[in-house]
Amino acid sequence: MTPWFDSFIFGAANSLHCACMCGPLALAFQGGASGALNYHLGRSLSYGAVGVGMGGLGCALGTSELRTPSAWVAFVLAAGLIVLASLGERGALAIPGLGKLMQRAMARTRTFSPAVRAGLLGVFTPLLPCGLLWAACSGAALAGSALDGGGVMLGFALGSLPLLLLAQTQVGRLAQRFGPRPLRIMQLAALWLAAGTLVWRGIVSLNGESCCH
Predict the structure, then answer these.
(1) Which of 14, 24, 114, 126 would be 29's cystine partner, CB 3.0–4.6 Å?
(2) What are the residue boundaries of the structural domains of the chain, listed by start?
(3) Any alpha helices (H) in 30-130, and if so which ranges?
(4) pTM for the complete prediction?
């Protein structure tokens, strides 16, 4: 099985959460559609680079010796979903200094165009205190190689992209159509369904059976 597909499921299940947490960010500088696209391009490239680094670090520490790295990636991502569903962002680990670092970095872009600033915001998104991001980074570290680590993080970014992009471009209409309670119910259902799917994929991988990719 391929870890990137597991992380794609992970990202898709969390897209509602990402839309609420990160959706307004790309619109902060009024970059419009080009700003949203630049944000996602910067975010995807940045996540991929972080994944390569985490995968390489994990490989140096011995994760390449794991019998089935993809199974452990699936289990870690499932655990992240369960923590989010149970605790919300209270389960997120805030690393001191990252928030201030992002603020300083963005402050230096004030003279840039809104679309460029949105793209740079995407690049700096890994500095945000997000429990889902930490779970994805942990999965990337267990992927067994730098390349697979990058695939895990890129899968996470791409999985959350469709609904996040929709929220960024249709945020007003979505807010009017759905209230907070229905959105929360849909979010929890997606989280638990994806967690179960990832656990199943991990067990199948451990047993050496084939599974749809």
Answers:
(1) 114
(2) 3-206
(3) 32-60, 69-87, 98-107, 114-124
(4) 0.77
